[in-house]
What does this fold into?
Amino acid sequence: MKMGRSLAALVWLTAWSLAATPQPQANAAEHAKAKAAAINADTGIDARVDALLARMTTAEKIGQVTQLLATDVTPAMIRQGEVGSILSDTDAAGIARLQTIAVTQSRLHIPILFGFDVIHGYRTIFPIPLAMAGSFDPEVERQGAQIAAKEAAAGGQRWTFAPMVDIARDPRWGRMTEGAGEDPVLGAAMARAQVEGFQGSNLADPQHLLACVKHFAAYGAAEGGRDYNTAELSQTTLRNIYLPPFHAAIRAGAGSLMTAFNDLNGVPGVENRFLLQQVLRKEWGFRGFVVADWDAVAELSIHGVAADHAQAAQEALTAGTDMDMHDGLYRQELPQLLRSGRVSMQQLNEAVRRILRVKFELGLFAHPYTEAEAARASQHWLTPAHRAAARRAEERSAILLRNQGNLLPLSKSLHSIALIGPLGNDGVEPLSHWKGDSDPKDTVTILAGLQHLLPNARITAVKGVEVEGDSDAAAQAGIAEAVAAARNAQVAILALGETAEMSGEGGSRASLDLPGHQEQLLEAVVKTGTPVVLLLMNGHPLSLDWAATNVPAILELWEGGTEVGNAAADLLLGAADPGGKLPVSVPRSAGAVPVYYNHLNTGRPAANTRFSSRYLDLPPGPLYPFGYGLSYTTFTLSNLKLSAPTLHRTGSLAVSATLTNTGQRTGDDVAQLYVHQRVASLSQPVRELKAFRRITLQPGQSQTVTFTLPARQLSFWDNDGRRRLEPGIFDLWIGDSSQGGLHTTLTLQ
It folds into this structure.
């Protein structure tokens, strides 16, 4: 029966191919639907792939493993089947035209897979992923990805190069902005949510996108936090810290994966057989396809592991990198590599098979076009519902770092405000390095948000200084203007931080201080005696040693997206309560990094003594720890309980505590469960997050928070690549950050 279905599909495909003629898009869509109905009636996806693969020429197969920029593609190339995927085209009409050529004028009518960097929004831009991780609410990530997918699909996209799930322990690394920070459990939760949001429950739904999990693997471990730099990791660190978010994304059903630019232990990502074959396909059973990052195949020669482009293409394809992005090396080198036998037809077929399978799963053969028309697509962009979701995401992602004297929330009866700083009325920088296909004119600035909520107040907006680049004379003049404005206001709100290009890809920074003359501006305004609220708008965590002592209120907004101004106004005036927590530890100085919380103890743990693991000129530990964040109300934890004092290696137990809102306002807190194994065959982190839950409580309300802790969550990978679950005593904490909290112990038998 299986052979009969394949034969039927092959006969139908042959007849369909012979009859195909160029048609307008409307007829092409009907043509594709009829074709899909005939195939779907007889056979499964694998049989359809095999039937199609059997008819493909070598050139057409090489076309499927080739991805090029739209500007590098000609109609003739598409007619000849020489390109399988196109990236970075946001012209909906242009996408439709190219797809029409592929499905009506090429010999086999294989649709093109269009991809774009839809990182945290397409037209409606959500907060950066690092910010949304700080919500400690995976639903925020899921909804943001779902809306981004809907808007991008309306513009003709079907593939996003997201989520980025790289763990980042060095805040100097620019691409930390795209991920979930430093913790693998939080990172895994956010990775799952993004894949589910982008892909939905049915990948063939044309309102969803194929997710591409990146960058495999340990890209975030780049030495010195310098983008593209080498990573040197033990198996235990790789498997315990850097791989869990990737595994979570694959288990969530991600259909594609992108290799890392960097080398890991001397092996670049596109040729890393251990990662691509042993871990990804053998251990995890991944059936999707792998795409190289931009020009990464060609860069094998620069790494020094390939003598020329031919060897680079050979190494990448045979290692398991199925699609070549941008550099065209597969297209250029594979014909001769196949003729010489350095690459086998079986290896090429397997790569093509994976790509075709995903195209069928996406429903591209049935629905090669999405909305793909600007007039219709715009109906799905920047809708009131999408804006409301982006506003809520920013409100839940913001982190209150300091609130001396309960300066926040501000009174709605304020009649004079000085809004100071280069980011107070800026619609560009809050969109981040990855702006999707957005328009800065759609951004609600901080000034606009405040004016909306305080229509009768006098709001004096003064830039003061640029983010960077001022001359000393210009800076002093701007600071003098800002000081005058602050002295004539009831409160000064300073919107400071980074430009979008100071983070993201290629955006690593050696300093984590406020750039330019912004620190001087801040200090001068604080000296006026006017109450100061510092709004941070940034992609990196910033070192704020002076501000943490001298500025009364600090609210971390990150790069907050399209609705940043409305969300900021809601938070400043108490219409929303900040409940976010830090997804990354904030250092006192860039010279102190890394300061991630789940470090090993060492034989001489950090203390205020000379002969301990510390710096002479800085207190030990971070300025603000992972998991930290304040609220406009107060919370206490009490009554920590275990369902049993011991845990069998095949069992699980419940860990519970009571969380109480002891303040006067409704607010959110995040209960966090941490563990530490006291004695093991390998030194264990001082704490490891195992579970978290964000909870909203009314004043005086209490809730019992219960976490289920399976014994397997207490296991770890050793340096031989083996998972170990070792008996012993474990410390447990439930707290509201990675420091302090209620403590107890359990025994694993």
In short: The chain has three domains: 2-375, 387-592, 635-748. Residues 1-42 have pLDDT under 50 and may be disordered. The radius of gyration is 27 Å.
